[in-house]
Amino acid sequence: MADSTPKIQILKGASSDLSAATYQIHDESHTIGNALRWMLMKNPKVEFCGYSVPHPSENHINMRIQMYDGLSSLTALIQALKDLDDLCVTIDEEYSKSLQNDQYERWDEKS
To answer: What is the pTM of this model?
Structure first.
């Protein structure tokens, strides 16, 4: 039977307009937490963003987002996820191109 836990949940205590909310993201760790926090903080409409891993044995992160001017933190989160995905695609494409064009430093295993 498949796990019915949603990937992202809004935790209790969020403002009614979602201008400030804490999101629990399941099956993720510091890897996505730090990258997503970085992408969110690039948005000038984000007042605060931070994340935590509640406990090492728990396989989720909590991401707190607070927005200026009553804007939706959910909209900012979705945009940051899209922007992070676009960045990863660009890095993958450029990396693949550089490998095809032999534009990399060779390492001699005997050294």
So the answer is: 0.85
